[in-house]
From TrEMBL:
InterPro entries: AI-2E-like (IPR002549). Pfam families: AI-2E_transport. It comes from Enterococcus rivorum. Its main location: membrane. This is AI-2E family transporter. It is found in: Cell membrane. One of its GO terms (biological process) is transmembrane transport. One of its GO terms (cellular component) is plasma membrane. Belongs to the autoinducer-2 exporter (AI-2E) (TC 2.A.86) family. The chain crosses the membrane at residues 37-59, 80-105, 172-195, 239-256, 262-281, 288-311, 331-359.
Amino acid sequence: MGNKNIEKMIMKYLIIVTVLVLSVLNASSILKVIAIVLGAFSNIFLAMLVAYVVNIIMVKIEEYLSRRETKIMTKVKRPVSLLLSLFVVIIIICLLIMLVVPATLDSLNMLMAEMPKYFQKIQVFLLAIFENNASVTKAIDLLEIDWKLLLQNIISILGGGVSSTLDTFLNVLGTVVGSLFNWVLILVFSIYILLDKERFIRMYERLTTLYMKSEKKRKLDMVLKVIHQTFSSFIRGQCIEAVILGTLCATGMFILRMPYPVMIGTLVGAINIIPIIGAYIGGAIGAVLVFTVNPPLAIGFLIYLVLLQQFESNVIYPKVVGSSVGLPGIYVLGSVMVFGALAGIPGMFFGIPTVASIYKLTNMYLANKEKKSAGTSLNSVLEEKIDPTIGK
């Protein structure tokens, strides 16, 4: 018996080593296959993400409708709450587009119209500086820009030439139609997930009950609840904080008599959903828009936004998001840098709750180790940290 066990162990390790060696030798091929598989499932992952975000709103509406429990309400509670949740999301997206897009196009048109005037002012400024240098002033005087030709060249470059305008239009149209079709499929799939989410929960319960020991299942349930609590708290916190920052930005711009207060406030708030750098991206775009109306006022806007961002980072963010996620500032910055480098803006967004989940679970594990002498189990440590209302 002893020899058989040793042989089994040797075979197991040989298989593991062989698989690892083959994986290293064929790493490029394996990575290509993984990329293809992830690409094939990308729409499903997006649908799951959409369903998860909408579910945060849907659960709250269901809780409200459950207070008026009747036979009819019991039957229609889920579809009604789902429709209301989707309606809320669509209304928010439409409002953002209506507030941001028209004003942005107007400001771009104004910028193109005012650009020659700004160029002339810069010429006058440079002539005043180099008035004692005849060669430089002569070069500045001779410097002229044909703005219509420049705009035509830009359009030609972007479109690939006048002769290919129709091809470019058809390519863009095809891309837009394809994207819309994909998003319709994603939305439909997410609706199916939300309407029948209990089926997936029951499947998880059956599989974990059949193939896992009860103690391991309890630990896994607790870990998943911690992750869910962290991600849902982070998403809610980011949305609330974005609304607060956008409102403060618009209010301050109204008081300071700056142009486009509602549009820029909405833009700054919406882009601020991207952690840490979002407000600065929105501020840069806002400064360009203010510049088109009043160039000196753009500097005042940047100063105001930097002060507002400092207030938001040190007062609002810790209260709204930090307290719920429970991640120290240095970890927040580190997670944004690392996950941003790995996956861009989506990495920045998902990095903070991912690191926060790991941080919480690590602290709970260490707390369990420290409390073992007192007879406290990991489950009791986890239960102390979990909101009992989550997991719906």
